[in-house]
Amino acid sequence: MNLWPSSVLFPLQWLLLVFTDSTIQPVSQLQPVIAINGLFPGPLINTTTNDYVHVNVFNNLDEPLLFTWNGIQQRLNSWQDGVSGTNCPILPGTNWTYVFQTKDQIGSFFYFPSINFQKAAGGFGPIRVNNRNVIAVPFAKPDDEFDLLIGDWSFDNYKVTRSLMTDPTIAFDSIPNIMLMNGKPPFGNPQGKAFESFTVTQGNVYRFRISNVGTTLSFNFRIQNHRMLLVETEGSYTNQTILDSLDVHVGQSYSVLVTANQVDADYFIVASPKLLNATEFSSLVGVGVLHYSNSVAQPVGPLPTGPDPFDINFSIDQAKSIRWNMTTGAARPNPQGTFNVTNVTISQTFILQNSEDVIKGSPHVVVNNVSYLTIDTPLKLADQLVNGSGVYQLDAFPVQSINLNASFGVSVVTGNHKGWIELVFKNNLEFIDSWHLDGFGFYVVGFGDGDWMAALRMTYNLFDPVVRSTVQVYPGGWTAVYAFLDNPGMWNLRSQLLKNWFLGQELYIRVHDNDPNPAKERPPPENLLFCGIFNKSASLLEHHHRP
Ligand SMILES: *[C@@H]1O[C@H](CO)[C@@H](O)[C@H](O)[C@H]1NC(C)=O
Ligand SMILES: *[C@@H]1O[C@H](CO)[C@@H](O)[C@H](O)[C@H]1NC(C)=O
Ligand SMILES: *[C@@H]1O[C@H](CO)[C@@H](O)[C@H](O)[C@H]1NC(C)=O
Ligand SMILES: *[C@@H]1O[C@H](CO)[C@@H](O)[C@H](O)[C@H]1NC(C)=O
Ligand SMILES: *[C@@H]1O[C@H](CO)[C@@H](O)[C@H](O)[C@H]1NC(C)=O
Ligand SMILES: *[C@@H]1O[C@H](CO)[C@@H](O)[C@H](O)[C@H]1NC(C)=O
Ligand SMILES: *[C@@H]1O[C@H](CO)[C@@H](O)[C@H](O)[C@H]1NC(C)=O
Ligand SMILES: *[C@@H]1O[C@H](CO)[C@@H](O)[C@H](O)[C@H]1NC(C)=O
Ligand SMILES: *[C@@H]1O[C@H](CO)[C@@H](O)[C@H](O)[C@H]1NC(C)=O
Ligand SMILES: *[C@@H]1O[C@H](CO)[C@@H](O)[C@H](O)[C@H]1NC(C)=O
Ligand SMILES: *[C@@H]1O[C@H](CO)[C@@H](O)[C@H](O)[C@H]1NC(C)=O
Ligand SMILES: *[C@@H]1O[C@H](CO)[C@@H](O)[C@H](O)[C@H]1NC(C)=O
């Protein structure tokens, strides 16, 4: 069986066959799991800076599907971003080829299904963007690398959960059941299912690329008797710091180096949830094993203890200590610190507050009292064909104040092309939120408790803020980031928490460049799909049936 479309044979091509696999049961419950090429998690997409990547997705699910490439910036090319505002879904039984370039990027990322709550059923997999050989990396080449996707997981059928999202108790109060490491339940799980294990050789150094692929929970990551050297966050080399444990929030990715410098034995790898008592929620503690090749024994002793999960100060202090290494090159030889944000002039400020709300009897999550209304027509397609008209109204909702009445809306906001934007996220909820911006890396300049006010800009770190694409916002607190809007396109700004996103915590930033030169923004791809008000088959059908 030859499934490769013969017209597009490129060296960096991935074929992703997506289906629900009833034989993959990470836990004993019968539930649909979205597998890719028979794997859960899906296969590694292994690329190098500036590669053109072709990913041919065959949707064998019984419902529409889209993948998004978390943290891949899709430079000048939001056509490939794979969210509801940029792409028509890939219909069941059909295939679609994404083509994108990992332009000027390095680092650790992951992909996942972006619509229909499908992420709760899996469908995620790792992405690496390796450095080109000519670019120096600020640490010695590790002996091996491991991708480690960790996330909370629920026993329910995602379609049932999705349909119950109209119930406020389920939407707002339910807690996942278990923490999986690369799709595997914890060491010592009662079903005797395989747990995750990494084999290492004493004396060697390993790079772990850790991502939080879960739906809800931040976790603290640690390895028994081993310390970690933090080296990378979502495509930025950090000031290297030695850590006993690392907090990873939903949608974030990190690289740490681990030296196998202990006696030959097996050691626990732990990911325990934040803001939950690990004694009361012991099934939510992910446990894997670091196995020394000469070890013959299983790991022993209590699990390594991490910080108190309720100690938010630990987490904030650690977050503030993660800095950009300003002097190292990343994708290019010039140092990351070429962009010094100390003196930048801010052209726009958005202050975005989340909250839970019941609108017309159904639970929703709002941003400034607006719950994003997901529509069938991609905003980007509407921009291209009818300048947005009839699909959305630009700047119809406030981004600095709160809408007087809670409402639904297709919220699309102007981002000034080549302007610096300051985004302030305020979290009015009781759990740790996580915001993500497609199309850009943003500079994480500040965290604070309580309300944000302009005077708090004094507290920003404008010296060496780390650049990343997903940032946590602590309960009752705020986080501020800067981004340089040099990437024209239609860009999703969302909560990475699946329920929040599904229930409306998102909006789009439209960065428009009037210059039609295709060297600036790319034209639509040749395989552009049409849907919503531009669905040709639907309009033909309608035409055909018209008397
Ligand atoms: C990923 O690609 C790099 C560069 O081509 C190669 O050296 C490495 O072995 C690949 N890794 C995997 C796991 O395929
Ligand atoms: C994949 O999609 C293309 C474009 O729609 C189509 O021509 C091709 O037949 C499809 N391939 C398979 C194996 O379904
Ligand atoms: C920053 O990068 C430089 C250049 O690669 C390296 O020499 C230095 O050790 C790094 N500094 C820290 C604190 O990680
Ligand atoms: C980051 O590293 C540089 C160079 O070693 C140093 O000057 C700077 O103080 C470090 N920043 C932090 C926050 O550790
Ligand atoms: C967690 O729960 C256990 C048992 O209910 C209790 O003894 C312990 O103090 C709690 N720990 C924290 C950090 O709240
Ligand atoms: C956390 O830090 C804040 C600000 O520094 C301080 O007011 C508060 O008491 C600290 N909380 C704990 C539990 O240490
Ligand atoms: C950035 O610019 C400011 C102001 O000129 C300067 O104080 C600071 O040292 C610069 N940062 C770096 C990392 O060079
Ligand atoms: C920032 O502004 C200060 C004061 O105007 C100036 O001395 C400095 O050179 C500027 N730094 C950068 C990186 O532009
Ligand atoms: C497209 O829409 C924007 C705002 O929605 C408007 O400012 C602009 O003039 C329109 N352009 C054209 C060519 O109609
Ligand atoms: C948000 O909307 C709700 C419900 O419509 C309204 O009661 C509330 O006052 C609004 N919030 C603010 C801060 O205006
Ligand atoms: C808010 O909703 C109330 C009740 O439906 C209505 O009377 C009022 O006019 C609305 N206010 C705004 C600003 O839309
Ligand atoms: C287009 O319309 C047809 C006929 O109504 C429907 O079967 C199909 O799912 C629609 N396609 C998209 C991408 O919305």
Automatic annotation (TrEMBL):
Q: Which domain of life is it from?
A: Eukaryota
Q: What InterPro entries does the database record attribute to this sequence?
A: Cu-oxidase-like_N, Cu-oxidase_2nd, Cu-oxidase_C, Cu-oxidase_fam, Cupredoxin
Q: What is this protein called?
A: Monocopper oxidase-like protein SKU5 isoform X2
What the entry lists under SUPFAM superfamilies is as follows: Cupredoxins
Keyword Signal assigned: yes
Family membership: Belongs to the multicopper oxidase family.
**Keywords attached to this entry:** Glycoprotein, Signal
Q: Name one GO cellular component term.
A: plasma membrane
The chain positions of domain Plastocyanin-like read 21-133, 148-295, 388-514
User: What GO MF annotations does this protein's record show?
Assistant: copper ion binding; oxidoreductase activity
- The region annotated as signal peptide is 1-29
Gene3D superfamilies the record matches: Cupredoxins - blue copper proteins
Which gene carries the instructions for this protein?
A: LOC111467496
**Organism name:** Cucurbita maxima
Membrane found in the keyword field: no
